[in-house]
Design a protein that fits this description.
The complex is a heterodimer of chains A (113) and B (113).
Chain A: E1 3-6, E2 11-14, E3 19-21, E4 23-26, E5 32-38, E6 44-50, E7 56-59, E8 62-65, E9 75-77, E10 86-93, E11 101-103, E12 107-112
Parallel strand pairs in A: 2-12
Antiparallel strand pairs in A: 1-4, 3-9, 5-6, 5-10, 7-8, 8-9, 10-11, 10-12
Chain B: E1 5-7, E2 10-13, E3 19-24, E4 31-38, E5 42-50, E6 53-57, E7 64-68, E8 74-78, E9 87-94, E10 103-104, E11 108-112
Parallel strand pairs in B: 2-11
Antiparallel strand pairs in B: 1-3, 3-8, 4-5, 4-9, 5-6, 7-8, 9-10, 9-11
Classes of the chains: A mainly beta (113), B mainly beta (113).
């Protein structure tokens, strides 16, 4: 079956620190992979995505590379800001054409000045 | 273009009651998916509607149901509410079925007393 395992939080970093949030997945076939972000009191926003092996998704300084050999999609940012404080979710969508996402448990990031 | 809207934003019910939540997708989007978010279980897929038909269903009891109207607006209904149904219910819309980006609404916070 499909599942996503995500690094447990919470994660607290100082401003300008380097961020890595680990994500590994189990899926049949060739899923698409996503990182979503949820700010307090809001719904989820797509941060970045990758649809095939070795693709790199990037947005707002965040990056993640689809690694099929290690079934991973780790999120990285070189220099975090206070405004990056949020909950980050790794997710996958299988190739059946259905619009259902399988989510990780989420990682809460707090960036302190 | 207006985003996904969900009404109401907050709801308090008592055990045994039923509840109906509404979701209006982005104009032109035809697929609507529903998710339940709880601290214990995380984000779980409920069901997906496309062209007024349920296309996919998650692992939830029959008390959870939904429908979609010809204008793509969707409702979900939960009957005989239980304490464990307290959650944030998120709706997401997509232009069409497949691995496209899902746009999430702000959610409806349901509290069952």
């Amino acid at each position: 079956g499909n599942s996503v395992t995500q690094m447990e939080g919470p994660v607290t970093l100082s401003e300008e620190a380097f961020l890595t949030i680990n994500c590994t997945y189990t899926a049949t076939g060739y899923p698409s992979l996503f990182w979503y972000v949820q700010y307090p009191g809001e719904g989820l926003q797509l941060l970045l995505k990758a649809t095939k092996a070795d693709d790199k998704g990037s947005n707002k300084g965040f990056e993640a590379t689809y690694r099929k050999e290690t079934t991973s999609f780790h999120l990285e940012k070189g220099s975090v800001q206070v405004s990056d404080s949020a909950v980050y979710f790794c997710a996958l969508s299988d190739q059946t054409g259905a619009n259902n996402l399988f989510f990780g448990t989420g990682t809460r990031l707090t960036v302190i000045p | 273009k207006a985003g996904v809207t969900q009404t109401p934003r907050y709801l308090i019910k008592t055990r045994g009651q039923q509840v109906t939540l509404s979701c209006s997708p982005i104009s032109g989007h035809r697929s609507v998916s529903w998710y339940q978010q709880t601290p214990g279980q995380g984000l779980q897929f409920l069901f997906e509607y496309f062209s007024e038909t349920q296309r996919n269903k998650g692992n939830f009891p029959g008390r959870f149901s939904g429908r979609q109207f010809s204008n793509s607006r969707s409702e979900m209904n939960v009957s005989t509410l239980e304490l464990g149904d307290s959650a944030l219910y998120l709706c997401a819309s997509t232009l069409h079925r497949g691995n496209d980006e899902q746009f999430f609404g702000p959610g409806t916070r349901l509290t069952v007393l």
